Amino acid sequence: MGIILITGGSRGLGKNMAQHLAQKGHDVIITYHSRKDEAEKVVADVEGAGRKASALQLDVSDSKSFAAFAATVSKTLQDKFGAKNFDALVNNAGSCIHAGFMDTTEEQFDQMVNIHFKSTFFLSQKLVPLLKDGGRILNVSSGLARFSMPGYAAYGSMKGGVETLTRYMAKELAARKISVNVLAPGAIETDFGGGAVRDNKGVNDMIASSTALGRVGLPDDIGALVSALLSDDCRWVNGQRIEAAGGIFL
Fold it and tell me: Which backbone phi and psi does 52 adopt, to 5 degrees?
């Protein structure tokens, strides 16, 4: 059992990951951007499963804050968990813009760079010294890095960068036996992107009809997979892209 740090753990997939990991016996540190109340509910869920948990504020778009955040993580590990290191990092935090290629502004593009690509690169860089030898990193990408849908040129491009970065991280961190993989969820029924997949029947039906298993994804589909990927059963998986999308656009 270990300590897992999940960015963006106050809602959506991050929340579900934390709940599943707690059920598997892990302690959890989550980050939240602004919804401290929601983060505290996740902490309560984890503690209700008999595990320790802590919620820390982090804006992943602000790379200048990462050094101070790493110091906070170090102090939290010592004070809350009685540990010097944690066992796994899940780079999950993110948001999405929907804009066509010709309509995407430079400001929107930079926002996606900072939130998805730059944060995965530099936050991991700052946290790896606190990650135990033999630990795990799981970066979260998207099915939109493999297939293309209008309106996601910037978002999908950043996730493609994350997937390439994952292979480099796996190669360069191997000296410490740290494995690094990337998980690419398909469309999931959460509040992500304004909740369109969850709340818009037309969108939901369109995705289901394009998916071999005939439905859109549910948060439990991803949370359960994350707990499996971070288990000892998957210790020999490294530098790989795992898509969890029910077989969409095969």
Answer: -90, 150
